[in-house]
Amino acid sequence: MTDRIVLAYSGGLDTSVAIRWLGEETGAEVVAVAIDLGQYGGEASGDMEVVRQRALDCGAVESIVVEAKDEFAEGFCLPALKANALYMDRYPLVSALSRPLIVKHLAEAAKMHGATIVSHGCTGKGNDQVRFEVGIGALAPALKVIAPVRDYAWTREKAIRYAEERNLPIDVNKKSPYSIDQNVWGRAVETGFLEDIWNGPIEDVYSYTSDPSQPREADEVIISFEAGTPVAIDGQKVTVLEAIQQLNKRAGAQGIGRLDMVEDRLVGIKSREIYEAPGAIALITAHQELESVTVERDLARYKRGVDQRWGELAYDGLWYSPLKKALDAFIEEAQRPVTGDVRMTLHAGRAVPTGRRSDHGLYDFNLATYDEGDEFDQSLAKGFVDLWGLPSKIAAKRDAHL
């Protein structure tokens, strides 16, 4: 029986060329697996039927398209939202969240089609090679991995020449200056003139967001949560996917979610990336605001550290690790009281909370007010302050004599 390779297929140049190349080099049949994560166009033109047919035309024996937008939103974006996941305090893990879901479907396809090898189109400089291969190792450790672009030093020029020589059905003349990865959670853009970190991004870079400097009316939105999950927008019930999609449009129209950053890649180099994630940034902003009202102080302080570590694990390709699983359980427990509404003004590139309410809130007006009705016994404060500062006071007296 002929061996089979399952290929993570995007519909772009590298993975389309990989179908033919893998077949020629290994003699194996290639099964292409494309995952619909709400790409909104991009390199594969967004038409998943076109993507499916392109794989077959390039030589795949089977071409599978998995509709996974809801699965992605519920199983990957939502945990990131509950963790307020922002790598380096800024990046909402656009690409990092999609890779473990793709890996899951690759492993399932390999089992279904009797494949012993999986393949991907990642380079040796990026994080995605780690995310794919560590994930495969966790879910299907018996599978081998082939990475043609990395392991055989492919360049875009080589791939174009290969496609032209074999008359592969790829329009190689439309050479974009950028490398783009996108899904419903956001969009990542790199390479081209952006590799000079002094060059500012131009409007041509952006697709999910409008220019925040252009005059427009502000947009007020109320986002409702139950146990950390967004369940309604302006009183209308939504799924997690619908919440992301609606806020992508509304926050995107206000230019919210644009990021220009030099980030620390897992492989040890720094890389300049342009991101736009309007829905993700709006939801995380609202979620953080509601947590500030509903999560007890010490738990909130500790969770901030957990959130940071959670984001690092997801970024570093350790989605299926024991630590990530344990942190998921902690975060889920911390979300139990995170129910209520947050009102925000979306305008000029910013999502600004202007109101918050919750039946599970810890804010007590009668304790917080300075007006009539104040129930806070200020006479207790002096003794508290004295005891709180006592260790520092004693140490200062000692240090004065050292």
TrEMBL record:
Its EC number(s): 6.3.4.5
Designated gene of the protein: argG
Annotated positions binding L-aspartate: T123, N127, D128
Metabolic or biological pathway, per its Swiss-Prot or TrEMBL entry: Amino-acid biosynthesis; L-arginine biosynthesis; L-arginine from L-ornithine and carbamoyl phosphate: step 2/3
Domain Arginosuccinate synthase C-terminal: from-to ranges: 178-394
Cited Pfam families: Arginosuc_syn_C (PF20979), Arginosuc_synth (PF00764)
Similarity comment: family membership: Belongs to the argininosuccinate synthase family. Type 1 subfamily.
Assembly description: Homotetramer.
Binding-site residues, ATP: A8, Y9, S10, G11, G12, L13, D14, T15, S16, G121
Compartments in which it is found: Cytoplasm
Coiled coil residues, start to end: none
Chain ranges of the Arginosuccinate synthase-like N-terminal domain: 4-169
Biological source species: Kribbella alba
Protein name from the UniProt record: Argininosuccinate synthase
Keywords: Amino-acid biosynthesis, Arginine biosynthesis, ATP-binding, Cytoplasm, Ligase, Nucleotide-binding
